[in-house]
From TrEMBL:
Organism: Pseudomonas mangrovi
GO biological process: siderophore transmembrane transport
Keyword line: Cell outer membrane, Membrane, Receptor, TonB box, Transmembrane, Transmembrane beta strand, Transport
Main location: membrane
UniProt protein name: TonB-dependent receptor
PROSITE patterns from the UniProt entry: TONB_DEPENDENT_REC_3
Pfam families: Plug, TonB_dep_Rec_b-barrel
Subcellular location: Cell outer membrane
Family statement: Belongs to the TonB-dependent receptor family.
Domain called TonB-dependent receptor-like beta-barrel: residue spans: 224-720
Domain TonB-dependent receptor plug: 93-200
GO-annotated cellular components: cell outer membrane
Gene Ontology MF terms in the entry: siderophore uptake transmembrane transporter activity
Length: 760
């Protein structure tokens, strides 16, 4: 009993480094943690475990960095997760469900981007709007919009402030630089603020100290796959650095359901510089710079704002998106004493999207009557547009009789169309754009304090400033300020019971204030096995685009000029309501997490989630009417099994079952598979040979079945200090469906690519 109580006290010691998602957190100063643990033993009048004298000797020799506290008790390190509460906790004590995709799993999967890795997470739905536009949803939602997940890279949110989306194809991080991805499956506004409504994906990059030396990798394959990566890690007396550069390219889907060539290729180049400084025994400083540039093709679509599409020649339909992203972050951590640590983190990010194209439309589209008719009776204008389209931009028999004197504006438009000069049926051409610049500044302070062996408090405050500039979407600049205060209390009531509670107060200048709580009770059968009972609430603030948009298209450099002007405003426009309320989610969860001594890890989750005041309407310029009148309710179960069998085999199975799903908006269910999951077998055959086999499946993704088998074969060669890995990857679809949308089609259901990686 005494040893069990001691173990609980050790597990509740504060982390020696900043307990916040960030690069290199996993490599925190284990020496101080271990020696602090030993000092705790020395201060207690209980029998000392048999490993303690050896560890004391290591501490005195300054070598305790190689010893883990859990090794003193169990002979095997107990894993820890961080994303749930910002505190390091054993999986059995976490107030929620967390999936961890570690470095070995990332490599074995053969995935080329993060959305494909999310197929390994139970309940996570991966869809594609096009080849370079992927979406990730937890439990489902609208196919083309994924706005209810918070995504972090080393603690820095990459959830764009203006259009409230995550550009998965444009994240400024290479898979080769990622140490692990922690996915908190459930609402977590308590720890990360609004927009962590349904979950948090925390991407944690590798510590510069663990990537010293040179790495070069090249991947080539079918569908235009052409990826490359290179990094150089180096060290000084008190600091480690890593500079990495990488590129990614592929052709996207091959053709549409109408057999048209698809324009959805992607090309990107990334650079990341990471550094970790040890200032003294109690202080550390880490900083990071990241750059990304690239282009994403956009397919040839009809212009939704054109009065008549296809009746006049189009100069340029490409509409490719040029993307440039810049990010910098810095984190300072101080261990005030063994029971108290402070962290300050700040980041500055800039997203630049440039999308420009040329288009033509009838001069009739730019008359005041057309704009007024769109404002008063868009259905009537749609009728006018369809009649013009049927006549290919000319009159059709009986058009005047159809309108007669029923609608004065329609009659005026009709009179324009029969003007003897024909000027209003002539094409007017010019330049349009969807350009947008978004900037975010974040400053956060976090404090971790252990009041006793049984009680820990994490608290903090942050300030965020968002600025978006777009003439098309906002008629200029729009700014927002967000203040936050948060806290999480962890209280060990005894040897088996852990009570946890937390709350986040957030004041958003555009969306108002909110207070979200979470309370959880964990029953630890042993330190490695626990039951959890969790109730939490979360919110999502309406984003700038939903609530405050001033969306209009201005045709610049028009020819011929309209009323003597070199520009003309399209009739279609959309204004945000400005009074949308926050979405609110209530979640109830019962779960079990177990870590067995023979390498088996199991997590089981039963959930009952409901979302109210949902903003679910399609956000189109010709149909823009967001409201808080929708709701969604989900109930089901998930499980994740990960079994490391000796050093040779690893088995991993995930499964999600959505028993009940109800939504006031039908489209929410389209990316909500009732059954989904994955199964994988990773095998080390010895002599440098490794294989991995994965199955991914879902019964309905946008009403389409998805099944795929991935096979990877790799061989490592050693030449002194140099290591070469050659790998081949096969992905084979087992279904004959389009991917997410009916136009997303490949010529072949199989794709093969290979890679070569050199480390020295």
């Amino acid at each position: 009993m005494a040893n069990a109580a001691l173990y609980g006290a050790v597990r509740r010691l504060p982390a020696p480094k900043s307990p916040s998602p960030g690069w290199g957190y996993w490599q925190s100063d284990s020496a101080r943690l271990t020696c602090g643990t030993l000092r705790l033993f020395q201060s207690l009048s209980v029998p000392i475990p048999r490993h303690l004298p050896c560890a004391l000797l290591l501490c005195s020799a300054g070598l305790a960095g190689t010893v883990h506290a859990e090794d003193l008790f169990l002979g095997e390190e107990l894993p820890e997760v961080l994303t749930a509460t910002r505190l390091k906790q054993s999986p059995a004590a976490v107030p929620g469900s967390v999936s961890v995709i570690d470095r070995s799993l990332i490599e074995a999967s053969g995935a080329r981007d993060i959305p494909e890795l999310m197929r390994l997470v139970p309940g996570m739905m991966v869809g594609y709007t096009s080849g370079n536009q992927s979406t990730v949803n937890y439990h489902g939602g609208r196919v083309s919009e994924a706005r209810r997940l918070q995504v972090l890279i080393d603690g820095r949110s990459v959830y764009r402030p203006g259009l409230a989306t995550v550009d998965w194809s444009d994240l400024p991080v290479a898979l080769e630089d990622i140490e692990r991805i922690e996915v908190f499956r459930g609402p977590n506004t308590v720890s990360y603020g609004a927009n962590a409504l349904m979950g948090v994906i925390s991407i944690i990059t590798r510590s510069p100290g663990d990537t010293l030396g040179t790495r070069i990798k090249y991947t080539r394959g079918e569908r235009g796959i052409d990826d490359w990566y290179g990094s150089q890690g180096f060290a000084s007396e008190n600091a480690d650095f890593r500079l990495s550069v990488s590129g990614q390219e592929d052709n996207g889907f091959d053709h549409t359901d109408l057999d048209y060539k698809y324009r959805d290729s992607r090309r990107s180049t990334r650079m990341q510089l990471s550094a970790s400084h040890t200032l003294d025994l109690n202080q550390s400083l880490e900083w990071q710079l990241a750059l990304k540039e690239g282009s994403n093709q956009r397919g040839v679509y009809s212009n939704e704002i054109a009065l008549i599409s296809g009746a006049v020649p189009v100069i340029d339909n490409s509409r490719d998106v040029e993307a440039r992203d810049y990010a910098g972050s810095v984190r300072w951590a101080l261990d005030v004493n063994p029971n108290h640590s402070v962290q300050v983190q700040s980041s500055l990010q800039h997203w630049q999207r440039k999308q420009e194209w040329s288009a033509c439309d009838l001069a009739l589209s730019f008359t005041p009557e057309v704009r007024q008719l769109f404002s008063e009776d868009p259905d009537k204008l749609d009728t006018v547009s369809r009649l013009l389209r049927r006549g290919n931009g000319a009159l059709i028999p009986g058009w005047g009789a159809y309108f007669g004197a029923q609608h004065p504006l329609a009659v005026s438009i009709y009179n324009y169309s029969i003007d003897p000069s024909g000027a209003y049926l002539n094409p007017v051409c010019g330049d349009l754009n969807n350009n947008i610049d978004e900037t975010r500044f974040d400053l956060e302070i976090q404090d971790t304090l252990s009041f006793s062996d049984n009680l820990r408090l994490l608290s903090g405050a942050s300030y965020r400033r968002d600025r978006t500039v777009s003439e098309t979407y906002f008629g200029g600049a729009l700014e927002n300020d967000v203040w936050r205060m948060f806290g999480h209390l962890e209280w060990y009531l005894g040897e088996h019971w852990v009570l946890q509670g937390g709350a986040m107060f957030e004041d958003d200048k555009l969306a108002g204030s909110s207070l979200t709580p979470r309370v959880a009770l964990n029953y630890l059968i042993t330190p490695r096995h626990g039951l959890r009972f969790v109730y939490s609430e979360a919110v999502r603030s309406p984003d700038m685009f939903e609530n405050d948009v001033r969306w209009t298209y201005r045709l610049e450099n028009v020819s011929p000029q309209v009323d003597g002007r070199s520009y003309a405003d399209y009739y279609a426009y959309a204004n945000g309501p400005g009074n949308l309320e926050q979405e609110i989610m209530r979640s109830r969860e019962i779960g079990y997490n177990g870590q067995f001594d023979f390498g088996l890890r199991i997590d089981i989750k039963l959930f009952n989630d409901e979302i109210h005041r949902m903003i679910s309407e399609p956000l189109k310029i010709t149909d823009f009417a967001p409201s808080n009148e929708n709701s969604m309710w989900m109930r089901g179960a998930e499980t994740e099994i990960d079994w490391q069998i000796l050093d040779s085999d690893r088995l991993r199975v995930t499964y999600a079952y959505l028993k009940d799903f109800e939504s006031s908006e039908k489209s929410h269910g389209r990316l909500s598979a009732r059954y989904s999951g994955s199964a994988g077998w990773i095998r080390n055959w010895g002599h440098g040979w490794n294989t991995s086999l994965f199955y991914h499946g879902a019964d309905l993704l946008n009403e389409r079945r998805f099944e795929r088998v991935d096979l990877r074969l790799a061989k490592r060669f050693r030449f002194g200090e140099t290591e070469l890995e050659l790998a081949a990857m096969l992905q084979q679809r087992l279904d004959d469906e389009a991917l997410t949308w009916r136009e997303n089609l490949y010529d072949d259901r199989r794709v093969v690519y290979a890679s070569a990686q050199l480390e020295f």
